[in-house]
Amino acid sequence: MDSILATAQSWLTDFFDADTKKEVQDLIDNNTEELKERFYKDLEFGTGGMRGVMGVGTNRINKYTLGKNTQGLSNYLKKTYPGEEIKVVIAYDCRHNSDTLAKTVSEVFSANGIKVFLFSELRTTPELSFSVRHLGCHAGIVLTASHNPPEYNGYKVYWTDGGQIVPPQDGEIIAEINALSFEDINFNADNNLIQLIDKDVDEIFFDASVDRGNFNAKNKDNFSIVFTSLHGTSITAIPEVLKRAGYKNVTIIEEQAKPDGAFPTVESPNPEEPEALAMAIAKAEEIGADMVVGTDPDSDRLGIAVRNLEGEMELLNGNQTMVLMTKFLLDQHQKQGFQGNEFIASTIVSTPMMQELGKAYGVEYKNALTGFKWIGKMIKDFSDSKFIGGGEESFGFMVGDFVRDKDAVTSTLLACEIATDAKANGSSFYQELINCYVQFGFYKEKLISLTKKGISGAEEIKQMLKDFKDNPVDSVQGSKVLWIEDYNTSVAKNVQTGEEKPIDLPKSNVLIYETEDGTRIAARPSGTEPKVKFYISTNAQLEKAEDYKSVNSQLEAKLEGIQSELNL
């Protein structure tokens, strides 16, 4: 506690503004537990950059923690690109304080002689990623906490390729930041170096999205879409992109169309949660729409609901939409003729069905750690190869490589094209998914996410993962465990034969069990939230589409059994 108190007292110097000092002193005098939470550690970069609760303290998002990040990044950029005119682009989402924090970040960059392109109003994360390369910038920043609760904000850093920072840049940048004290931050803005941008960049991004996501599906006038931005940034892009692609029958949920960091109509602005899309689904039922699309606050994730075999709206999961979108893109490339250098990609906790797609089409499948920054890194590392598309189970997808992060804008258009094309041919999005299961195997997944907040929560997560590793299970639902993949040690071990294989990915706190029948169970801490996550995947053969309901019920029961068996 003495070190925590000393850290807090260091925020009482004249460098910090009066409101900050007053709040810190009040915590010291009246709220020891809250003081601990705010100052017991520094916020860290995770799979999606730096995210945290807003407020005063080293473990909070505020002008000083983000200012220090920006000062460290400025120092790193100047060392990396000596003698060049360094340029960065900055965007921000709908969250409380995102605009003021973006202004602060801009000012620190400018104070360090760096040219800044700052979006004049909120914009999507995919447009920010696109803009890095379009504007010839050395880096990009987006102020967002994605789908986290309203009290959060965050800071994502993009490199010259438009992808998020990855090794070695991330470690080197963090080292620069950690070498600084808060007093090293230069807040003296040079406003001549800050240029506001908006419609000119929008136009080029919209055209690029339509170019990549539009496949000229027939009968678009006969396809009805309900769209909700969940109070986020996608309202600035998706309606216009759909319009340019020829969709006229789009109903926007007006109650959720206005950007609002309080997210007043939902418990969580996360399209993974059925409740988040409840208002849109109700509207779809009312008007008989074909599809519902909802996006998270920074518009990198999308949730899709379509009509199932009973004609009811059903929310699909990220694995399902990823599989069908990837198959559709593979089909389009196959028509043009594969060149032999194409690849698709996903992550180690996503459905194994993606690998089966690659095999079936004779296209390389690349596997990455969780987080789209690793897929972006693949595109950069294998620049002679062509990235067709890919995603991860957490409702993210990327169409080609013109954006180097999850892109709900172009992916929304792609999903609409697939569904419209299917309807025009007497099928449906849902039916086409079932056809995939017949062709490539029926894979069904379940995510169990447990929230553990604060210092005690972090310890609890650490212990749960330790127990999962130290007490390995022998079998799952009667199927013997065959492989244990430990990404902390980079070793996969066959527990039946003793064979060991290296895992050719960066070390990560992930453990995966795979059984003889292909069931996979992965465990990892979230990189952006106080959560521990368990991913379960199982599979079966689906001989014909007519058997879908019975086989689906069997897999559902198996997933429930696994969850119960593991006491999750």
Automatic annotation (TrEMBL):
Gene3D superfamilies, sorted: Alpha-D-Glucose-1,6-Bisphosphate, subunit A, domain 3, Alpha-D-phosphohexomutase, C-terminal domain
Cited InterPro entries: A-D-PHexomutase_a/b/a-I, A-D-PHexomutase_a/b/a-I/II/III, A-D-PHexomutase_a/b/a-II, A-D-PHexomutase_a/b/a-III, A-D-PHexomutase_C_sf, A-D-PHexomutase_CS, Alpha-D-phosphohexomutase_SF
Cofactor: Mg(2+)
Chain ranges of the Alpha-D-phosphohexomutase alpha/beta/alpha domain: 44-182, 214-305, 317-436
GO molecular function: magnesium ion binding; phosphopentomutase activity
The keyword Isomerase is assigned to this record: yes
Keywords: Isomerase, Magnesium, Metal-binding, Phosphoprotein
Keyword Transmembrane helix (UniProt): no
Source domain of life: Bacteria
One Pfam short name: PGM_PMM_III
Bilayer-crossing regions: none
GO terms under biological process: carbohydrate metabolic process; purine ribonucleoside salvage
Coiled-coil intervals, chain numbering: none
Protein family per UniProt: Belongs to the phosphohexose mutase family.
Protein name, as recorded: Phospho-sugar mutase
Source organism phylogeny: Bacteria, Pseudomonadati, Bacteroidota, Flavobacteriia, Flavobacteriales
